[in-house]
Amino acid sequence: MELTGAEITIRCLQEEGVEYVFGYPGGAVLFIYDELFKQEQVKHVLVRHEQAAVHAADGYARSTDKVGVALVTSGPGVTNAVTGIATAYLDSIPLVVISGQVPTSYIGEDAFQEVDAVGITRPCVKHNFLVKDAKDIAATLKKAFYLAKSGRPGPVLVDIPKDVSNQKAEYSYPATVSIRSYNPQVQGDIGQIKRAAQLQLTELVRLLGAPCTNTLMGLGGFPASDQQFVGMLGMHGTYEANMGMQNCDVLLAVGARFDDRVIGNVAHFNSVPRKIIHIDIDPASISKRVKVDVSIVGDVANVVSDLLSVLNSSKQKPDAAALKDWWKQIAEWRSANSLSYKNSSELIKPQYVIETLHKITGGDAFVTSDVGQHQMWAAQYYKFNQPRRWINSGGLGTMGFGLPAAMGVQLAHPGATVACVTGEGSIQMNIQELSTCKQYRLPIKVIALNNRYLGMVRQWQEFFHGNRYSQSYMDALPDFVKLAEAYGHVGILVEKPSDVEGALKEAFARKDDLVFLDFRTDSTENVYPMVPGGKGLSEVILAEDL
Amino acid sequence: MRHIISLLMENEAGALSRVAGLFSARGYNIESLTVAPTEDPTMSRMTIVTSGSDDVIEQINKQLNKLVDVVTVMDLTDGDHIERELMLVKVRATGNDREELKRMTDIFRGRVIDVSDKTYTIELTGTEHKLDRFLQAIDHTLILETVRTGASGIGRGDRILKL
């Protein structure tokens, strides 16, 4: 059957079962948009900025088992998408991003809206393609979806010149894909723990009787309400998690990659003779920063399930006496109560807002976040019991991620409770998406912890730069309530601690509305505990130290 | 330590820049890099000379393996192998120097492949070390131009890098 490149593109998306495409039209993708218009199976979500298209596709992917899809035009369409692509790349999120390109005969001529999309995205994609002939579109898209979700997942960009999308070619969707150069030893899934893996992991932790911690990206991978959970580790991890990491005899790392925010200073981390067992889907993640003693390459669900059968048939049991001593030590560290904070009846404490959010939503919401102090408080105080509920840009640390990601989550889970925890700085990096939320009636609850500062920058300036708050004060802030109203939503200003719970209740009772909650929080509050950059896990600043 | 890494990759536009980009993005050294299609025109063979600690070399191998265009990777330095590099040197060859340069070329088993009344162009093949020694052996001031390909490598005997 002869079809145009644009028709083939849409057919491929249909074949892949794509439900939503997040995008923004422009000259180079007009033929593709024309074909989108002629069908109903693949729904298009019109964002207000291409960065948001990619974040929304990303949020969709993180909260489901599916590949997120974004569609942007050439030139600025692609460059705007790059931040979103890099965000997905660092967090191993499966995306297919389709970009338009100037016609093949114009490539290299500095044509209008021309940019070397494949070149500019090369360092931040798992792979990318420039399709030069319509007959190659189907095979390329098949490969793109396969690459995005297999092995260690990641974003894949497919660049389609305008003439190629209008060129006719014979179409059939390939049943299988074979890439001789790519043969992941294992088939994986999104870089977050799946429900099945969580259950197995829980069983393993019970069997071993050891304490369990999660990275920022892994929160929900093990139930936070479990007795054996010692909280998040890393730069803003709990005292007991970090001290446990530093002082344990054996560390079993499941899909974690020992990055600088997780283990701090490598030499300090290596200064104790613990043994490390590392399970990861990506061989290159093993012994990259920290040399490990035993490595197992594989999908976490499979490896943990194999481990369980070995352990269950073994006569050896964990050393109960040693574990008892270890738990006694953990309890001692726990008693430091490193997440405690002094609540106030005058000023709204951000931690209190998150705790109340947890209470009001029964701990069962999808929570997206932007980047900064509010992100850390959400991670610390919203106790995630399930995987894929905590959606944040952990690797790249992209401000402006939260709201568009929440759109993707809400579309993937209609009827579910979706909260976007943000700050007055981050929200302004993609605030135009309030318009998209109105168009698609997405009843997201925006929880803005508005402390009038780029809080994390301010905190570092307080700790490490002599209280010189260089450019971290957010002057001339908009009236967020009026702004939300201008976009057709509901805005609520909350200035008193006694109003926090009531406002949250009111907001979540409005099932069909996007509610923007502007919490005026204590601007001097800091995130504790804190392991300063370049320090070791036990070199921690606790709230009481100051 | 110096390593010589050999790999097979798709003979496709952009494949070379994926490899080169990996080295610059992750701060790995490239001393030389050569690439050309193999007997199968869909595939290219690349030889990279690099240096680094054992940990860095392990990461280089793993990261190269992750590239979708890279089919297979072998660290030739892990076993017996042969390396060859081609060098073309244009020298000022006048008067007494003409004979001396020809003699040196013969000693190093090179060939003079182009002659003008004032110059010779000498072709020399061998290891990096041998080519370096040749350049040291002749009068430095006579060298007009040097072109080197960078090392190509192959395993000895049964060590074969093939799909």
Describe this structure in words.
The complex is a heterodimer of chains A (546) and B (163). Chain A is α/β, with parallel strands linked by helices and 546 residues long. Chain A has three domains: 2-170, Thiamin diphosphate (ThDP)-binding fold, Pyr/PP domains (Rossmann fold); 195-334, TPP-binding domain (Rossmann fold); 350-527, 3-Layer(aba) Sandwich (Rossmann fold), CATH 3.40.50. Chain A has 20 helices and 19 strands. In chain A, the strands form five sheets. Chain A has a six-stranded parallel β-sheet, sandwiched between helices. In chain A, α3 (50-62) packs parallel to α4 (76-90), α14 (350-360) crosses α15 (373-381) and α14 (350-360) crosses α20. The relative contact order of chain A is 0.11. The model of chain A is unreliable at 186-191 (pLDDT under 50). With 163 residues, chain B is of the alpha+beta class. Chain B has two domains: 2-78, ACT domain (Alpha-Beta Plaits), CATH 3.30.70.260; 82-152, ACT-like. Chain A, domain 2 (Alpha-Beta Plaits). Chain B contains four helices and nine strands, in the order βαββαββαββαββ. In chain B, β6 (111-115) and β7 (119-126) form a beta hairpin. Classes of the chains: A alpha/beta (546), B alpha+beta (163).
